[in-house]
Amino acid sequence: MNPYIQKIQTNIEPLRQEIINHKVYSLINDIDDLKVFMQHHIFAVWDFMSLLKSLQRNLTCVSVPWFPVGSADTRYLINEIVVGEESDVDENGVRKSHFELYSDAMKQAGAVMTQINQFIDLLKAGTSVTDALNAVEMSQSIKDFVGFTFQIIDSEKAYLQSAIFTFGREDLIPGMFYSIINDIHQKFPESVSVFKYYLERHIEVDGDHHSHLALEMTANLCGNDEAKWQEAEIAIIESLKQRIKLWDGVYEEISLEMAQK
Q1: What is the rounded distance in angstroms from the CA atom of residue 123 to the CA atom of residue 216?
Q2: Which pTM value belongs to this model?
Q3: Which of 46, 87, 105, 232 could form a disulfide with 163 if both were Cys (CB 3.0 to 4.6 A apart)?
């Protein structure tokens, strides 16, 4: 294994375990709890797609006239991931992005789409990400999470984008959560089947094939440059801390709703 990757994996393991064993999962016991989780998590799904497309923009030519950009190997890696994330299939074999699939899951479960819809509508109208985050009423943990992702995107440093894409976003949903969703699905299959399918695709596509491609992409972009690897590790650690804060926000909202019942 690449020694730089091995070092990062060792150094971030405590944070990964904190995420995987986060107390929020123990609170998700029914549809209402799951809705709160989804209303936060959808922003992570959306900005994951933004991070992905920023990488494609930086590592390939997406303008006309066309000319070759960078390494063909790296172009292949990012384009392969984009195909799977932006045009996967739903449970009926219909082509959809993972964001659209997640949105379908929220609608089926009856989760509130107001925040994410208002946010995207503002962006489509030309509002900046920062202004849109401030304009829509949402948890501060969501604002901080998305804000950090776009801080990395705006850096225009593809190796940092690739690093948090690879180590800060993939393979962070624990087996316990899958078990919880399976239990809820048994009770309410008509409300959770799409979300269950989304998680299954996450395991099959994101957690296996794409994670290997992303590791190779990050290794290609950082090469043997010690400074790049050090900067990447700092960004990865911060991205994991932001994920913990995002889950803290979910935990606080579910706890508040439980206290009000």
Answers
A1: 32
A2: 0.94
A3: 232
Find, among 18, 68, 80, 9, the residue nearest to 248 by Cα.
18
* Whether 245 contacts 173, CB under 8 Å: no
78 by Cβ neighbours in 10 Å (0-12 / 13-18 / 19+) ranks as buried
The tokens for 62 are: 């997406």
CA atoms within 13 A on the CB side of 57: 11
Q: Is the pLDDT of residue 108 over 70?
A: yes
With 0-12 CB in 10 A as exposed, 13-18 as middle and 19+ as buried, what is 190? Answer: exposed
Instruction: Write out the two tokens for 140.
Output: 């501060």
Q: Mean pLDDT of all residues in the chain?
A: 93
Q: List helix spans (H) across the chain.
A: 3-20, 24-27, 31-59, 72-86, 98-109, 114-124, 129-135, 140-154, 158-167, 175-187, 189-201, 211-222, 226-260
The conformation of residue 93, written as its DSSP 8-state character, comes to: S
Which residue type sits at 163? A
Angle at alpha carbon of residue 149, lines to 47 and 128, rounded to 5°? 75
Amino acid present at 130: T
What are 89's strand-pairing partners? Answer: 95
Helix (H, G, I), strand (E, B) or coil at 139: coil
Name the residue among 127, 145, 150 with its Cα closest to residue 50. 150
Contact 170, 212 (CB under 8 A): no
Contact between 148 and 244 (Cβ < 8 Å): no
